[in-house]
Amino acid sequence: MSVARKKSATKATDEVVQTTRAAVRAVSSTSMPANEPDDGAQPSGSSTEHIVVAVTRAIVEHRLLPGAKLVEQKLGDRFGVSRTIVRQALFRLSQLKLVRLEPARGAFVAEPSIEEAREVFAVRRMVEGQMVRQLIARLKPADLRLLKAHVKEERQAVERIDVATRTKLLFDFHVRMAEVLGNQVLVELIQELVSRCSLITLMYQSADDAEASNAEHTDILAAIEARDADKAAALIDEHLMTVERQLTERRRVPSLRLEDALGTP
């Protein structure tokens, strides 16, 4: 292995270690319940946050693709903000490992390596196994209804072949479990990992079996309802392992313009 590749691998490993430590703190702590998400509402907060949310959603829904150039002027025009605001948003996205900033070249949607991909899935298995155990210990009837409604929406999106919606819902199932726990730090961590996994599966996944993913979510939910923590944790581990086993070195990076990915204002 070359010196450059060793340094890159070391850096990636350090990032995963930091993420794992944050995960342990998040899963072990308690907090007030998080607010219910409203997918139909406009993102609240600053213009910077608005851009971050919009770009992240485009990535999760596989509309914005690995390696795509994010032109500051086009983003400014799209959101009606200054390039200073755009740069702040791009910097935030780079901190989330969703965007790569290159001096004199600009910003690009990140292109995670296959090594990084496997490390991200390893962290998710560690975090989500413990997460589902705590979820079962604190589960309320309203929480179960929320998760059942979500899985039903997944199934409906799969049946009508609504690719963008089903992709988002399948990833968001894991975020919903974190939201049920009411731990905002954990929610943000899972959102970051899920967004990175969206890029990873777009680049490396050889088969996109949405129907199978929904069926696995249904099985996980049944174990949660039965309050069988060991089975639920094992099913989540196997679910994530299945996705990881589908990763291949052959990248799948179709072409899509920035304007098309972000849609109309």
Structure description:
The protein is mainly alpha-helical and 265 residues long. Helices cover 69% and strands 4% of the residues. Strands 1-3-2 form a three-stranded antiparallel beta sheet. Helix 1 packs parallel to helix 5 (114-138) and helix 7 (163-181) runs antiparallel to helix 8 (184-204). The model is unreliable at 1-13 and 15-45 (pLDDT under 50).
How do you describe this structure in short?
Helix content is 69%, strand content 4%.
* DSSP strand tally: 3
Helix content: 55-70%
Helix-strand sequence: HHEHHEEHHHHHHH
Q: Please list the strands of the largest sheet in the order they lie side by side.
A: 1-3-2
Mean of pLDDT: 80
Weakly predicted, low-confidence segments: 1-13, 15-45
Number of helices: 11
Structural class: mainly alpha
End-to-end separation: 47 Å
Shape: globular
Strand content: under 5%
**How big is the Rg?**
18 Å
Largest sheet: 3 strands, antiparallel
Offer a few descriptive terms:
single chain; 265 residues; mainly alpha; three-stranded antiparallel beta sheet; 11 helices; disordered N terminus
Secondary structure layout:
Elements: H1 3-28, H2 47-60, E1 69-70, H3 72-79, H4 83-95, E2 99-102, E3 106-109, H5 114-138, H6 141-159, H7 163-181, H8 184-204, H9 210-225, H10 229-245, H11 258-262
Antiparallel strand pairs: 1-3, 2-3
Helix pairs in contact: 1-5, 1-8, 2-4, 2-8, 3-4, 5-7, 5-8, 5-10, 6-7, 6-9, 7-8, 7-9, 9-10
